[in-house]
Every structure is written in structure tokens, then in C-alpha cells.
Amino acid sequence: MSARNSADGEVAAAPEKDAVVEDFLRYLEVERNSSPRTITAYAQALGAFRAQAKGRAWKTCVADDFRDYLFSAMKKRQARSYIRLQFSAFRTFYRFLVERKGLARDPVRELELPKPEKKLPLVLTRQQIDELLGAPLKAPKHQAAPTWMPLRDAAIMELFYSSGLRLAELASLNVADVDLYTESVRVLGKGRKERVCPVGTPALEAVSRYRSAANVQSGPLFINKARSRISPRSIWLTLKRYLHYTSIPIAISPHKLRHSFATHLLDCGADLRSVQALLGHASLSTTQIYTHVTVERLKKAYDDAHPRA
Which pLDDT score, from 0 to 100, does residue 286 have? Predict the structure, then answer.
């Protein structure tokens, strides 16, 4: 066991790892093929509960322990989505304990969670999309940046909107994943599930221009100045920087390009099942939120244009 020196010179033992939680996290990674983000979020949720429960054994916890944790989270005014994520971790963990560790009763099943907030995703208009996608080639260029960098940024945003990719999916793309002949991109999504998404001509041309200028022939598709794979955070900050060179009045994230992709497809007549497949959603109910966005947009268009609205 490792140790460290405390402030008064005594040697304090480092906290021991929770063997049951370690088994659970390995189960998520190996058997469930959960994403690293999910594994990290679940580990943090279990750690936070364990700290409040003062290290009580998992098998001795009862429903009231989790009810107290829920009330504490609501008193702190934590977002409902965050609370539900934490309890998703608890439910998955206790299901694991029941199925793999012989636990007789799942205490988390007895709780009723607050309903999720109904928030419609914000989407950009097609005019705003055009303005944003054109920003990399119009914005002032940094003298220290390679000359190919604006072309890379334009290709990133074109591909985001063209294929509706998640941020992590786009950052992890390799050159071999983009097929110019079939006009498609192979994506490794959540749960390591692979899907193939079509890519529009403007995005393919933008990717080709960038690759030619940056001499990117293999390996990571999008690279940084050091010619290693660009990070998701760098992509986020890049998008944020170009927003300043547009008239778009709202803060946007890479995910809003994904929202806009789905909503514009439905606006133009795409069926829900096709959009579900393109987005890589496991459940159709996740995709259905975009139908509500589309209806709201139709209502606004009606109210703005109809003489007797």
C-alpha cells in the first residue's frame, strides 16, 4: 500500500481502492463496451455517493440512503439531467451486484426520480449555418498558424453539419474512414458501434482541399500544429472562436451543428428512422425530440406568414 506524509509528519495511508467498483468499471469497459466518458461519469457518481455514505459497504445500503442522496442533490439545485445521470450509474451498478455478486435486493429500484426537463434543442437557421461554415476562410489569419489551418477548420465544420457527427466521433476520424468514391464516412459511435454516414459534396471538397494543403495522407484526419490528432476540446474552442466573426446571437457548441443537421433533414422530408440511423441513436425516442423542434418551427413560420394566424 502506498503512503504519503501528512502535515504533522505522520505517515498516512492512501485510500484503498473499492474492489467491487473496480470490477464494475471493468465490466462496463469489457462487456458493455461503454465509452470512456460513461465509465468516468459512473465512477465519479459512485465515488460521490460513497463519500456521503461515509464508506458504508454497498451491500448494506438501503433505499433511504439513496433517497437522502437524492434530496441532498436537489437541495444543491443540481440539474435534473445530472441527477438522473448519477442514478443511472447507481441503477446499473446495483443491477451488476444482483446479477454478478449475489445481492438479494436492489435498493435503487424503489426510488422515483424527478422527471427530466423538457428542453427543445436550439438549432441554427440555414442562413446561420452558411455564415458559420464560411467564417474560417473569412476570419483574420493568425501569423503563427500554418497556412492550412483555416482549411482544416472549414473542413471540420462542413463535416459536422454534413454528417451530424458527435464531437468525439469527428475527432477520432482517420483518413481511411472517409471514402471519396462512395461519398461516405465510417464512424465509431457510442458503445463502439460502427455506422456509415453519407457526406455531401461541399464537405468532401473541403476535406480534400485541407488534406492537400496540409499533406495529410494517412493516420488522423484532423491534426493540430504539432501534426498529431486534434483534441475534442481544441475543436470546441475553434468553433467558439469563429462564432465571433458571425452575426449569430447565441452561444453554440459542436452538438448544435448535430441538432441543426437532424432538424433540417426532417424539415425537408426525411423520415424519422433514417435520421435515427444517421445520428447513431439506439432508441427512436431519442430522435423524436427533433420532430418537436420541427413542429415548433412550422408553427412559427405559420404565425409569421399566414394573414389570419
Answer: 62
Compute the distance between CA of residue 278 and CA of residue 142 in angstroms, rounded to an integer.
35
What angle separates helix 149-163 from helix 201-214, to the nearest 10 degrees?
A: 150
CATH number of 126-305: 1.10.443.10
C-alpha–C-alpha distance, residues 31 and 96, integer Å: 12
**205 closest CA partner among 241, 180, 168:** 180
Residue numbers annotated as active site: 166, 190, 255, 258, 281, 290
Per CATH, domain 17-110 is 1.20.120.530: no
Q: Rounded to an integer, what distance in angstroms lies between the CA atom of residue 154 and that of residue 160?
A: 10
Q: Mind spelling out the 3-state secondary structure of 22-89?
A: HHHHHHHHHCCCCCHHHHHHHHHHHHHHHHHCCCCCHHHCCHHHHHHHHHHHHHCCCCHHHHHHHHHH
More confident call, 53 vs 143: 53
Q: Residue 59 corresponds to which cell in the numbers above?
A: 451491500
Instruction: Please state, in angstroms and rounded to a whole number, the distance separating the CA atoms of residues 64 and 68.
Output: 6
pLDDT for 102-158, tens place per residue? 898 899 988 888 776 666 567 788 899 999 999 998 888 777 788 999 999 999 999
Question: Domain segments of the chain: what residues?
Answer: 17-110, 126-305
